[in-house]
Design brief:
alpha+beta; two-stranded antiparallel sheet; disordered N terminus; 393 residues
Length: 393
């Protein structure tokens, strides 16, 4: 009975104490709130079972936010959430951004990589090398200046214009045509994280695969001069091919078919510059060769249906030479007179019989030949004869 009374006294005291606290302004805790009851700018704290205001750095949250990571701010028309962003070695998280970017190329900075909260005021993961040291080629750590210089000199590779070193490679390769980079060439240290020797073309231009300065860039459309065309998927104009017409023009780069080239119709062929179609001159040339005057020197003649003289070989004929045209019979061949034969050069005839032999036959007397040959005296020396003149039958 005593114990029961004691507990009763305690209970009454507790009740009085609670009522006193209520009178002093203390509230009895209500039932736990749900996330759907949190207003904009608040998130639901699952441990504390109530809505909590977002921190000042990320003051905004959509109604019903369930985590502190749902708090955000707005910068440059994008939401920056209060959540970790993982950046690889060689990257950092710029201020007012929730995306990692490549480390600055200044040798004073390096980026070891890590997980960062976005910030509106400072870059996360961009660190400065201590005095006497500089960033390595990948900008992932700091090394002494002498060590970097030694490494660079021993591993540097020289690429000629039109070539570059892809990331992870240790040798040069041809520039990538059709994209926004050109390759001026130079000396580079290979890198595992970036390509070396690529330069960005001016806005609106693409690479033609060549090097030097920005002349390695071109417009997405390409103009070809008359006599040139743009081949399938080609990045530069080519000279026209035989028998085809290439009038030139402006064409789209990278298409899967030839542009600016076509074959002449019918029996027409392209002219020497491939800028117009015309009649085939081969047949006309053959005809002109047939009608062309052909000069034949003495001692040669022009055979039938030929255009090239050949040597005269007859002993009873001679070839005085002259100008002839191609014909169906031999041109430039003459018979030697009776009693004569051609000389050694076959350019003229020389007498082989005496006057009496020519007049009366080989014996010098008797019946005259049916075709008498009369002596033809040499006007310069009447005592000699140079041939004969036939008289009668």
């Amino acid at each position: 009975m005593y114990k029961t009374g004691f507990y009763a006294k305690i209970s009454c005291f507790a009740v009085v104490s609670i009522l006193t606290q209520i009178g002093q302004g203390f509230a009895i805790p209500a039932a736990a709130l749900s996330a759907t009851q949190c207003n904009a700018g608040q998130y639901y704290d699952n441990e504390r079972k109530k809505c909590i205001g977002c921190p000042s750095l990320f003051p905004k949250a959509d109604p019903g936010a369930t985590s502190k990571n749902d708090c955000y701010t707005e910068a440059d028309n994008q939401k920056l959430y209060r959540q970790y962003i993982s950046c690889k070695a060689g990257q950092y998280l710029p201020s007012k951004s929730n995306a990692c970017v490549k480390c600055k190329t200044d040798s004073r900075y390096y980026c070891p990589g890590n997980r960062f909260y976005p910030s509106l005021t400072e870059d996360r993961g961009l660190q400065t090398c201590p005095s006497g040291k500089v960033a390595n080629e990948e900008h992932t750590a700091c090394v002494s200046k002498s060590a970097k210089q030694s490494t660079s000199q021993s591993s540097a590779i020289t690429c000629e214009p039109g070539k570059y070193i892809p990331r992870g490679w240790t040798y040069c390769t041809g520039c990538r045509s059709g994209d926004r980079y050109y390759c001026p060439g130079g000396t580079f240290v290979p890198s595992e994280t970036e390509s070396m020797g690529l330069k960005e073309c001016p806005d609106g231009m693409i690479s033609n695969g060549n090097g030097s300065t920005s002349t390695g860039c071109m417009e997405p459309t390409l103009h070809c001069d008359p006599g040139q065309y743009l081949a399938s998927r080609a990045k530069k104009c080519r000279d026209c091919v035989r028998y085809y017409l290439c009038e030139g023009g402006t064409f789209s780069v990278g298409l899967a078919f030839d542009q600016g080239i076509k074959k002449c119709e019918g029996k027409l062929v392209a002219n020497a510059n491939h800028t117009a179609c015309e009649a085939d001159k081969t047949i006309e040339l053959i005809k002109s060769l047939r009608d062309e005057d052909i000069t034949v020197p003495a001692g040669k003649y022009l055979p039938a249906d030929k255009t090239r003289p050949v040597t005269c070989t007859w002993t009873t004929k001679y070839c005085p030479g002259g100008t002839f045209k191609k014909a169906s019979t031999d041109q430039g061949v003459e018979d030697c007179p009776f009693g004569s034969k051609s000389n050694s050069n076959r350019t003229a005839c020389t007498v082989t019989l005496s006057m009496d032999q020519m007049r009366y036959g080989p014996s010098g007397n008797g019946t005259p030949y049916s075709r008498q040959c009369w002596h033809q005296a040499d006007t310069n020396d009447p005592g000699k004869y140079v041939g004969c003149v036939f008289k009668g039958k």
